[in-house]
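thread: overnight batch results

M.L. [08:02]
morning all. the overnight job finished for the chain we discussed friday. pasting input first so we're all looking at the same thing
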Amino acid sequence: MGILGDFLCYFIPMGQVLGTTASSFALLAIALDRYQNVTVAIISKRWNPNLWKCLLAAFLSWIVSSGWSWKLFKYKGFFHYKMSKF
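M.L. [08:03]
and the structure it wrote out:
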C-alpha cells in the first residue's frame, strides 16, 4: 500500500456515495424549482428565488450528502478484509 493507502480505502467508498447522493439531491432541488415555476405561474405570480436561496439549497444538499456518506467512512473500519497473495 502507498502512503495514502489506508485513508483511500475508507475515503473512496465514501466519495462514491457522496457524489451519488449529492447529484440526487441536486436533481430533487431542480424538480422542486420547476414545480414551483409551474404552480406559481398558474396563480399568475412569478417564482424567482434570489441567489441566497439557491446557494443555501446547494450548500444544504452537500451537507446532507456528506452526513449520509460519513457513516460509510466511519463504519468501514469495522470490516477488515483478508487479501490473499497471488
